[in-house]
Amino acid sequence: MSDAPQAAAEATPDAAAPQADPQPAPQAASQAAPPSDGQLESPVELDAPPPPVAAVVDCPVCGTPTSAGEAFCESCGADLGRGTPLAEDTPDPEAAPIEITSRSVPAGPARAAGVVVVLPDLDARATTCLACGGSVAEDGYCEQCGTPARRPRDHFVELPVPWVGGVCDKGIRHARNEDAMALAGRPEPASWAAVVVCDGVSSAPQSDVAALAASRAARDVLSAPESEPPLTADELLTRAAAAANDAATKVAVGVKGPNPPSCTFVAALVESGRAVVAWIGDSRAYWFPDGGTAVQISTDDSWAAEAMAHGLSREEAEKLPQAHAITRWLGADSPEGPPRTVTVDVSAPGWLLVCSDGLWNYCSAPEDLGALLTATQARVGAEPVALAEALTMWANEQGGHDNITTALVRCG
Amino acid sequence: MADFAAEIYQNEFLPDGGTDVHAIVSVTCTGAGAAGAAEGDEAAEIIIVDTSGSMAGDKIVAAQRAAAVAVDQILDGTWFAVVAGTDGADRAFPYPNAVSPMVRMEPGARAAARQAVSRLVAGGGTAIGSWLRLATQLFSTVPQATQRHAILLTDGKNQSETDEALQAGIRQAKGVFQCDCRGVGADWDVSELRGVATALLGTVDLIPDTASMEQAFADLMQQAMGRGVSDAQLRVWAPQGAQVLFVRQVSPQVEDLTARRTDLNPLTGAYPTGAWGDETRDYHVAVRLASKPLGSEQLAARVMVAVRDEVKSQALVKALWSADDTLTTRINPAVAHYTGQAELAEVIQEGLAAKAAGDEATATTKLGRAVQLAEATGNDEATSRLRKVVDIDDPATGTVRLKRGVDKLDEMALDTSSTKTTRVKK
Questions:
Q1: Is the minimum CB–CB distance between B327 and chain A shorter than 8 Å?
Q2: By CB neighbour count within 10 A (0-12 exposed, 13-18 middle, 19+ buried), where does B353 fall?
Q3: CB-based burial of residue A143 (10 Å sphere; 0-12 exposed, 13-18 middle, 19+ buried)?
Q4: Whole-angstrom Cα distance, residue B222 to residue B184?
Q5: Is A13 inside any structural domain?
Q6: Does the distance separating the beta carbons of A145 and B240 come in below 8 Å?
Q7: N or C: which end of chain A has fewer CB within 10 A?
């Protein structure tokens, strides 16, 4: 979640206070996956298994702290419901292209050959209560303890190929997950990947729907078959941002209120040892080469970033009351213009991280975030989802004040 | 076929560490039909008339007429009987020599019953427990009647038997039939009769003079005959580890149901609510939960209406822990209104009891608070009744003085109507 978008000049101290929004869970899948145009070019779309449980800090039954990747609580043995790792379902790169039609969403748009995309079913509902193991009643709450059935939208995982993975989590303080992400990759390590993260603006209704629609629309553009003549990465990312903006704007139809649904945008296109990052708003991309200098690739479109551009230190700028007010966003009332783009050499071994402010708020400086990543990897290993889950859990341990999205691409 | 709808009015937001959830559940019944009219339903009615010596004169004549009017209102096909109550109880109709203890209403029976009640004579004492025991016996002869209801009229205190005997009579009758109680004149005991009515899911009210008796009986019987749903249950589910603090009917009158709970399962309690016509009743449900971290959501209660073990409607009471003070400090207007109305009933009764016991200081404080609450919740009827008992100096602060030489009937009217609430503007 980002704070309310504000033109920097109009910013007022009160307007950016985040508000819990009592909107119901979104019905995003149909908007996010337009019907097929019939020109499928051997795409691979996988039904994800039920997404794992939210990165809980403590076991919901006995309160003992748990770690990412544990299926059962070490203390009391409660099933933590984290599900099976997605990696088992990723296709063998040597195998013939496979096509699995999703049960929950219509056949997707055309994709370039060999590109793998996962479509988690975000509308499914659990039948077993994750807090106590009781059954979930038709009203959506546990029959024993009254805990609401976890909404898949509140915590979902994508791992299209073993070297590209992410976790999108509600965090602790917010009632809804207004972050979204959409990933794609080719099976061969470090070959081709696209990662999109959007962070819905919580002061506008339906921003969770807008963020999901925007991220998936952008991924559809980035993973489409190559056009004739081929576009440059910058051009493709600009188109992806435009498609994301259209998708977010469409959500506004029929939504009442002064603030139409809106979200941030950050996308990374990784190919041939090079990453091109495009962004609008304050969701970020970082590059962490193994043993090298950590780099923040994107520069926020935010009040804090503008203050830093005018000479304030990062520390001073991020403490400003308006630090998180973004100056650019996607949606019906968004300012015009293409995203800013930056190209980075990612041919060395390392991690490309694309994340929302729910993560970087607790660790903004690239060297700090890099150190956190290195320490976490030493603990949980280099599997992207395990690493992303651990970072998500870390953010929740810091308070989980915002939705948290962590997407990782293993490069080199 | 009757339909029930349940609606919740609450503020679901709790502050950090908050545990108590309050909600008003508004239950509306439509399509109830007439008593005993539904498939498989039969209704039974008993009219219990005090024929003690104190009823002699105008009162017994008025009681005869009132009973006759009530008989007129009983629908054909309804099982019925008339009980004459003194220091014992006699079956006035069907006649003592009749074969059947209760008969079904039809034009011939109606004419015979009218004649029987015109022969009621006053003489003897008052033993309400024995009246209830006879009614219980009579109702038990018609087990097929799913809806059993009585009207009880008295003009005096329960002098001819011990209070234990009265309580035993109430216990026997409990769950067998519902009973609306009416006291005529100023010589009966409001709290005594309220005890009967409350236990038997009925109402208590004052009939100030003999001239009002006919109308009061006609209204009561009409209302009873308009209740086509014989017995509805309010069911409250609360999560494991939670505690149901109270379940209270708050409209049309205040009635604490908490102690009427029977456990359906470890998490769900059932509260009998008696027969229903087309009407709306509001309930205040309070649940104490274990506090959860900020951002958590939990279902605090499922409130259901069930008729013969079939759940007709369900509404959800929720809890959401939030750090946002603007959300958590809001008090739901319906909860606030009915909390005030319930306290109003309590302080009126306590104030009048203190006054009767000669404790003027307590009476002044309690009735002052009542004036303040009636003013705050817009209960103008309560305010005008309070005015007859106290002089009001300042309604906002509840500053009052006890009136001298108050008419006993005014005090009783204030007492009996203390539980009647005004509906909240939603």
A1: yes
A2: middle
A3: buried
A4: 19
A5: no
A6: yes
A7: C
Q: Count CA atoms within 13 Å of residue B214 on its CB side.
A: 9
A137 in a domain, yes or no? Answer: yes
Helices B163-173 & B190-199 angle (0-180, nearest 10): 30
Nearest by CB to residue B295, choosing from A137, A142, A174, is A174
Interface test with B, best of A143, A172, A174, A401 (most B CBs within 10 A): A143
* Residues A112, A41 contacting (CB under 8 angstroms): yes
What is the ipTM score, two decimals?
A: 0.81
Query: Is the distance from CB of A382 to CB of A152 less than 8 angstroms?
Result: no
Does residue A4 form part of some domain?
no
Q: Per residue of chain B (426 residues), what is the pLDDT tens digit?
A: 799 999 999 999 999 999 999 999 999 999 999 998 888 889 999 999 999 999 999 999 999 999 999 999 999 999 999 999 999 999 999 998 999 999 999 999 999 999 999 999 999 999 999 999 999 999 999 999 999 999 999 999 999 999 999 999 999 999 999 999 999 999 999 999 999 999 999 999 999 999 999 999 999 999 999 999 988 999 999 999 999 999 999 999 999 999 999 999 999 999 999 999 999 999 999 999 999 988 888 999 999 999 989 999 999 999 999 888 888 999 999 999 999 999 999 999 999 999 999 999 999 999 999 999 999 988 999 999 999 999 999 999 999 999 999 999 999 999 999 999 988 764
* B323 vs A145, A148, A173: nearest CB: A173
Residues of chain B contacting A137 with CB distance shorter than 8 Å: 302
B298/A148 Cβ within 8 A? yes
Q: Is residue A170 assigned to a domain?
A: yes
Q: What is the chain B residue with the closest CA to A403?
A: B295
List Cβ neighbours of A331 (8 Å cut-off, separation of 6 or more).
A5, A201, A204, A207, A210, A245, A248, A249, A252, A260, A261, A262, A263
* The model's pTM: 0.70
The alpha carbon of residue A38 is apart from the nearest alpha carbon of chain B, in Å, by 43
Classify domain B334-416 by CATH architecture: Up-down Bundle (1.20)
Which chain B residues have a beta carbon less than 8 Å from that of A132? 240
**For residue A49, how many C-alpha atoms fall within 13 Å in the half-sphere facing its CB?**
13
Domain-by-domain residue ranges, chain B? 3-32+229-330, 43-225, 334-416
State whether A142 and B239 contact (CB < 8 Å). yes
Partnered with residue B50 across adjacent β-strands are B85
With beta carbons less than 8 A apart as the criterion, state whether B51 and B127 touch.
no
**Interface of chain A toward chain B, CB-CB under 8 angstroms:** 19-20, 132, 137, 139, 141-148, 171-175, 400
Are residues B298 and A146, on separate chains, in Cβ contact within 8 Å?
Answer: yes
Q: Residue A15: left (phi > 0), alpha (psi -120 to 50), or beta?
A: alpha
Beta-carbon neighbour count of residue A346 at 10 Å? 24
Q: What is the total count of domains within chain A?
A: 1
Beta strands per DSSP E along A253-327: 262-263, 265-271, 274-280, 284-289, 295-296
Contact A293, A303 (CB under 8 A): no
User: With an 8 Å Cβ cutoff, are B242 and A144 in contact?
Assistant: no
Return residues 216-245 of B near A (CB < 8 Å).
Answer: 238-242
Structure-block tokens of residue A270: 């990784």
Q: Domain of A315?
A: 22-411
Contact between A393 and A155 (Cβ < 8 Å)? no
CATH number at residue A28: 3.60.40.10
What topology does CATH give the domain B43-225? Answer: Rossmann fold (3.40.50)
CB proximity under 8 Å: B 255-294 to A: 267, 293-294
CATH architecture of B3-32+229-330: Sandwich (2.60)
B422 sits in the region (left: phi over 0; alpha: psi -120 to 50; else beta) called: beta
